[in-house]
Amino acid sequence: MTGSLIPHSAGNGSSEITSYQPGGLPGAMGEPEEPGIPWPRYFSALRRYRWLIAILTIAGLGIGIAATRFIKKAYTASATVFVEKAPEQGGPIRPVGFLEGNGWGDLLRSSVVLDSTALRMRLYLDFDSRDSAAFANFALKDEFATGDFALQLGPDGKQYEIQNRQGARIDAGLVGDSVGRRLGFNWLPDPKSLQGGRRIRFSVITLREASADLSKHLNLNMPADGNFMNLSLSGQNPQRIANTLNTIAEQFVGIAADLKKRKLQVLSSTLEEQVRTTRAELERAENSRPSVPTPSPCPVKVCRSRPDCSRPSQQC
Fold first, then answer.
1. CA separation (Å) from 13 to 8, 9, 16, 26, 298?
2. Which of 13, 121, 125, 127 is the least buried, fewest Cβ under 10 Å from its Cβ?
3. In this structure, is the dihedral angle defined by the CA atoms of residues 55, 59, 62 and 64, taken in order, positive or negative?
4. Distance CA 67, CA 213 (A)
5. What is the pLDDT of residues 148-184, one digit of tens each?
6. Who contacts 231 (Cβ-Cβ below 8 Å, separation ≥6)?
7. pTM of this prediction?
8. Which is nearest to 82 in space by CA: 261, 230, 232, 246?
């Protein structure tokens, strides 16, 4: 049984072969595609979805800008301090070391170092960096209040009042006078930095809280047999953390030198006391030694030679 899949023409009896291309219907495609990258198809897709692409691009750009405003940057400052290595315990006279093991790290994180740094760098005070001029000479008295505060200036810029977190007034006065004396603040801001109607927010914490927060962000790395202590401090204000870390290193070196000087003074006085005690015991031992009798010498003037003398004596 034979047959043909090629249709015959109804007119003149001649047959016509219809071209067939893969992936399409017979006669449905035009000319065959050229090999290579189909750029026209890509451009067509871009034109077709141009509005969707534009909306997604603008949305991503907006989200990125918003994220940079809410995500706070973190910076890290580092420093290296040379420390004295513990001397070797050998020989009849042994040198005395200052600190050993974790003593250097304990001294660095002690309150005498961190509290003095917090007081010097005013880490107890937090405010917006745009208000730095208003807090240039802010200080604390021996007793002061802590918490969140707001300095509200009058419309004319001549009066002020300090409010707590709830907005209640806790102090008031005239611009140009000391601010917050009832709260323990030693603060005389520049009137040029206090424009009328401004609201300046700030917070005050204790020195112990400031030093504890400083110790939390302070990292210490010191090899067991090394002489260098590596310090690093992280924060959001690069210049402030750099100055803070330099102050920590200065306080640490100064206090370590003072403690070593005192230790050497105590050691020197102890050695002097031991020398005096030993000398006194030696003198007492010499004085308590029994005396040894010595033979009496020959008389100088005798009439005749005496038999008990080793040589003839002088004559009378």
1. 6, 5, 10, 21, 180
2. 13
3. negative
4. 26
5. 999 999 988 889 999 998 889 999 989 888 899 999 9
6. 78, 79, 80, 81, 108, 218, 219, 220, 245, 248, 249
7. 0.61
8. 230
